[in-house]
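[job 4417] fold queue: 2 targets
>>> target A
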Amino acid sequence: MIDEKPIDGSRRPIPEPALSPSGRLYLDAAEAPGGTPESQRLRRLWTEDQAAGLLELAGESWGVMPSPILRFWREFARSYLTALCHVPGLETDPSARPAEPGGDELRTMAERVPPMKGLEYLTPEILLRLWRELDERARLEAAGHSGGVSAWLKDRDPNWRLV
């Protein structure tokens, strides 16, 4: 759990992701009630869908992440978005998929996760499942956007666009 410092100067905790024995990534909100509207939105999205929470965490609105755990999961989601941006012909073929990380890359990622609650349950297979869930969630959100994937990415965060 980390502290966020809102405009009024008080400190409110942001819960950190944890992993359940079944491999579900969740925010341990019991440790950090309250918070700013942004952290409440993150909690709501994460409760709705872990991939929605990861996509929210990837946005620039969060600024610098002081927690190594939050930084890791933010970079994981950003890796997916970067791969999505590099899919050739995505605008004309929405079924095109970003390349999934290979076994060695997934093992390396799993080894680099900082200490967190439930780390003993993390495997390369769980990371691959989370990657695929990010893909499903991104496609679901982009399908509801009138401008397609590139416009969805831009609306989500101006720094994300197809390159």
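>>> target B
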Amino acid sequence: MTSPSDTDTSSMLALKRDPSAVCFRGQRLPEPLGATAHMLVQGQVQPLGLHLHLRNHSPTGFEWGYGGSGPAQLALAMCVELVDADTALKTYQEVKARLVATIPQAAEKWEISGTTVYAVIAAAQSR
């Protein structure tokens, strides 16, 4: 007989930080600046790096609201802030599809909790 902890993949994920302490925010700025994103960690604003060294989908920056390269780069960046790089690389496309691509493309501002992102990572990892 197995216990829930024996089969619960989310408990096996290597967390970099507590997802409940993280909030991701995006904002569309006037051209030529375009879309930008950052994170709040325990209420402190921190930049959200592109992490191009892991996957170079969009060297020009983040986007949202569709399934392209800018949203992929944003999803990867969000994942890397919560879990190890290997897990992030395995799951960020699911985060893109289920979260980043669903943000209205015209949204001037948005916010997604770290807990929400982590739940998608955990679900994708358990497949």
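[job 4417] complete. Note on B: The two ends are 21 Å apart (CA to CA).
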